[in-house]
Amino acid sequence: MASRIDKVANDEMMVFRIGGDEFALISGLYDYESVVRLSEQVLAKNGETIDYEGQKLPLSLWCGVTQIPESLRYSEFFTDMHHTIDKSKE
Question: Which positions fall inside the GGDEF domain (predicted)?
Answer without folding.
Answer: 1-90
